[in-house]
Specification:
Elements: H1 14-45, H2 49-77, H3 79-98, H4 103-131, H5 135-162, H6 168-191, H7 193-214, H8 223-227, H9 232-266, H10 271-295, H11 301-324, H12 329-342, H13 348-357, H14 364-389, H15 395-418, H16 420-431
């Protein structure tokens, strides 16, 4: 690919970028919104610590299950149909969370939010990839999704930061905001003639692909036929390689997303300092995601991956050495700052690009959903013990474990990016 590809404009695909990106706002917004407001919800409803943990766990597990099975369901009943209507159900869940009169209603809201946001991610990414008329446009669309993901986090943190003394009002404003965004996204997707035209063009290309592959446009490519067919070695290699890379990376990213403020607090920071640093780091991450989107379709993607991945390993090494020698809180701040700055070059955005490029279009939603769901379930299980792991009494051993996990992710990523072109060539052979 030419280095000039970074200057390619989205043009008529901008509407698809925004309509899909709003789904990213919703996905991150519900996670951060709940983590930032759960204490005021707890006080308002009189929840026990066990009930608080249950609500958070239900949301995380349902995101995982939505990702695991939502993509398969979308492939079966129609990805565009699911893409258009899924956020109406998200809005129901957000409103239940905003005005829940009791614990049971709160749980139902968490189920709605988890299942819908978990389904939304793989479906939106596969729609963007399928509707794009070139690999460069596809990479830009898919990678830009991360900008919206960070924006959802930022808005949720910002609202709760400024309304930190407003009690349950802060939680209601956050979830009502998410409900409004969900309704806007759903109406836009169902009513836009421009989006409908892009979907129709994507349908034509998908039918042509099926005809080339099977001689019959009605024959659907299945996950089984891809993973265990003629090119199974390459596709299974991609599945396991990308899976190892993403699960390892996401264990850390999810930990900082859920427990960054907690980790700062238990290691001596004030609430104002902890939330303020969190807002700054999110802003930086959003800017870096925008940079990655610009270069995602160019030949700069590979060297920036090596830079981003190696710096994240260095960040975890700094943390491990810092806590081992009882360094100040600022060592942890510096380490997490480095992790946030560089994870846009070697993190979720790269994972999204790889999953869309490494498999035939008809199975991308299913495979992406499986990887995302499996990762979320692993993160949900890991989150159960995270508060214990980041406690000052355990942080030394934990920091070295984090370093090891990041190193594994980086090595898997190196293998994936060094085989990127050869694996994409197999996808092209299968499709042509």
């Amino acid at each position: 690919m030419s280095g000039n590809n970074e200057n390619v404009k989205l043009g008529r695909f901008t509407s698809l970028q925004i309509a899909s990106g709003l789904g990213g706002v919703l996905g991150s917004g519900c996670i951060v919104g709940l983590s930032a407001t759960i204490t005021v919800i707890k006080d308002h409803l009189g929840l026990s610590p066990v009930q608080v943990g249950a609500v958070s766990s239900v949301l995380t597990f349902c995101i995982g299950f939505g990702s695991l099975f939502g993509g398969r369901i979308a492939d079966a009943i129609g990805r565009v149909r699911v893409y258009n209507f899924i956020n109406f159900f998200y809005a129901i869940g957000a409103l239940l969370m905003a005005f829940a009169p009791n614990y049971a209603t709160l749980l139902v809201g968490a189920v709605f939010l988890g299942l819908t946001s978990g389904t939304e991610l793989p479906v939106s990414l596969s729609i963007m990839s399928r509707d794009a008329d070139s690999e460069v446009i596809s990479n830009k669309l898919v990678s830009s999704h991360q900008i919206y993901w960070h924006f959802g986090q930022f808005i949720s943190y910002l609202v709760t930061f400024f309304l930190s003394t407003s009690g349950i009002l802060a939680a209601r404003i956050v979830f009502v905001f998410l409900a409004v965004v969900a309704i806007v996204a759903a109406i836009w997707r169902t009513a836009s003639k421009q989006l409908a035209a892009l979907h129709a063009e994507g349908d034509v290309r998908a039918e042509q692909e099926a005809e080339r592959l099977h001689g019959d446009s009605k024959v659907r490519i299945s996950v089984t036929s891809v993973l265990f067919g003629q090119h199974k070695k390459v596709f299974l290699f991609s599945l396991f390689g990308i899976g190892i890379y993403y699960v390892a990376w996401n264990l850390l990213a999810n930990t900082w997303g859920q427990f960054q403020t907690y980790m700062f607090r238990v290691n001596g920071a004030t609430q104002t300092f902890a939330t303020g640093i969190g807002l700054v780091l999110l802003l930086v991450a959003t800017i870096m995601s925008a940079v990655f989107t610009r270069i995602s379709g160019s030949n700069k993607r590979k060297p920036l991956f090596f830079l981003g991945g190696s710096m994240q390993v260095v960040a975890m090494l700094i943390m491990a050495l810092g806590v081992m020698f009882n360094a100040s809180l600022w060592i942890i701040v510096v380490a997490l700052a480095l992790f946030n700055i560089f994870n846009s070059f070697a993190g979720e955005a790269m994972y999204k690009v790889w999953t869309q490029n490494a498999f035939p279009a008809d199975v991308r939603a299913s495979i992406q959903g499986f990887l995302n769901g499996f990762s979320r379930i692993c993160c949900a299980l890991f989150a159960i013990i995270t508060p214990t792991l980041v406690d000052p009494s355990n942080i030394k051993a934990t920091s070295w474990a984090f370093f090891g996990i990041m190193f594994v992710s980086f090595i898997a990523g190196v293998v994936m990016i060094n085989t990127e072109k050869s694996r994409q060539a197999v996808v092209e052979i299968a499709e042509n």
